[in-house]
Each structure stands twice: as C-alpha cells, then as structure tokens.
Amino acid sequence: MRYWRLVKQSTGALHRNRLRSAMVILGVMAGIGALTVVVGITKGVNRRVMDRVNKFGSTAIMLFAGGGKNVPGGDQSARTLTLDDAGAIEQQIDGVDFVCPQLMRPRAAVSHRDRSAQFAIMGVCKRWPEAWDWEITEGRFFSEQEYGSMSRVAVIGRTVVDELLPGVNPVGESIRINNANFRVIGVLAARGASPGGGSMDDRIAIPLTTAMRRTFNVTSVTLVRIRTTGVDRVEGVAAELPALMRERHHIQAPQPDDFRIVTPDALLGLAQSASGTLNRTLTAVTAISLLAGGVVLMNLMLLSVSERRREIGLRRAVGGRRGDVLLQFLFEALTLTTVGGVFGLILGAAGSVVAAKYTTSPVEISWEPAAIGVALSWAVGIVFGLLPARRASRLHSADALR
Fold first, then answer.
1. Measured between alpha carbons, how far is residue 378 from residues 17, 194, 383 in Å?
2. How confident is the model at residue 119 (pLDDT cuts 50, 70, 90)?
C-alpha cells in the first residue's frame, strides 16, 4: 500500500509538471535513440569486417604488384609481377599449397546485343575457383584444353547477368569484351562486397592465357593469390615471401619494395581500426547526448525540489520519513528516464531501419540495444536523480514550511 501511494504521488507530480517531464524525456530519448543506432551500426560494421575476412580466406595470402601501404588492391599500372614469380613462390617456399596468378582490369567495355556496360575483367588461373572458394552456380568453369588453347570463354558474375542478360539463360550466350566475342560458359555465385569494399559480382573471369596474350597483350600479372597448407602456415609463408621477392626483383635497401603483401590478419587489423574509429566517434556522440539529458534531469529535479518545499514540509510534518521522500523523487527521475529510454529505443529502431535502407552503412538490429538502453536509462535516472532526491529528503519540516 505504501509503495502504491508512492507511485500515485510521483505520477501526479510528473503530470502537474508536464513540460519539464517532456524536456527530460526528450533528452534521454535522444541519447538512447543515438545509442540504439550506434550499437546497430557497430554490429553491422563488425559483421561486414568478418564477412570480408572470411571472403579473403583464412589460409590465403595476396601478393600485389606495386609498392605502397594501401590495402587491399593492386596497382593496375604496375608491371612488377610475372608468372615466373608465381612459379618461384610455389616451388621455393615451404607451406605453399598452390598459387593462382591473376590479371585484373578494373573496367572494360562489355556488350551483349543492344546492352553495354563497364565491368572488371579478370584473367585467372585454372584453379581459380578453388583459390577463392568460389562456386559456379550455372554452367561450368573453363577446361584445361580451353586454358591451354587461349579460348575466348568467360564465366560471369551475377551483376553482369542482371545488367547484360536479364531474363535469358546466360550459358551459351555470346558477349563482346574489347570488341572480341566471348562465349559465356558459367555464372559465378553471388559474393557481395570484396575485402576492399567493392562489388565482387560485377566481374568476368576469362583464362589467364587468353587475357595476357589475346585480350590485353601483357607479360605481367596484377596479383598472385597464395593458398597455404593451413592457417598455421600463413605467418611463416608471409615472413619468407618478402625476401624471395626482393631477391628476384633485385631490390636492395633502402630501395622500396615493388610489391605488397596482404594477409588475413593485416586485413582484419585495418578493418577493425577503421570500425574502431567510427565506433569511438559514435559512442562519444551518445555519451554527450546522455550526459546532456542527465544534466537537464538533475537541474529540473532541483528546481522541482525548490518549488515543492511546502509539499515536502507537510509530508515530513505529518510523519513522512526521509526515506519516503527520497524514494518518491528518485522514482520520479527513474520514471522519466525509463519512458525516455523506451521512446528512445523506438526512435533508434526506426533510425536503424532508415539508415539500413537509405545509406551504405551496415546496420544490424538486435536485442542488445534494448537491454543496454534500459540499463543506461535507469543509470541516468539514479545518478542524476540522486542528488535532488537527497536534497529533498534532508529538508526539515520547519524550514520547508516557512
């Protein structure tokens, strides 16, 4: 009965000061709403990071042509990697299962009948699907004979199908790449974003022999994908690789390397560093919002204590205990922050849906924001409501009634 009376008195006081209550609720709502979006973005970014690392491959190492520290990605103009380099890696470094040299051209004119677009062209090795763990969903990959004879055959990505061959069976169709006809023999499984963030579905794979000798007329490759015999061999292979490449390319200190090595750990570290910066920024915004809401709550509650001195004095004069007064004001603070937290969760969930739909930010909606939001709203209510509640409970009835 005592606590029910406490609830009625607290809600009555909040109702009489609706404008102040609304201001506190809005402050907390903004903070919890921001928190909900932050948690959703953080989880989405972390999931994207792990997806990209998984796509990279836990037993893979990438050797790119060209120096520098930007990862991932190769320098398309560099001519520093050759097929002989790839062969030396496979033969001279222990722990290498196989290598897959690859020639990349980020954009080339591709057409089919009256449709045309720009797509990435990849000249790839015979074991390329195995090197990337990439499935062929329709048709097949090119054969040993097609590879050796430099056949003009192509395996295309899902985006290529959607843009150039919508509504038709792509296998067996003819497409033109740099004004040369290629026969489509397969379709790659949808892969999504690459480790570097670009789409992996707007690519066309052709035999490396065809790409080097008939399509682009080059003697170098853009990258070499190295598959090790196990996860435990990645670090060792990556450690031996620079010395072999410097020896083959006659690089002496202090000359810079003309190649770049990317491992799963390096990719993960770069991605986590970028997501960490984003998380810290968003967390700071959330903390500032909650702090502002808490300060508003404390100031308005202190003002309420000053205005309700006679009410407090009367309660104390008729036998009200300090603990009852403290609980009432603390309950009022908790009520306001809880309501603000609930509305904040609704606002944050709506914001997360909008962010996921209209921006490129990955957002994952889960139960964690609700639990964290409720806990933080209670924490704000207790921390910032305790001082006004204690001040109200310590008023003497005689002083308060003057």
1. 21, 42, 8
2. very high
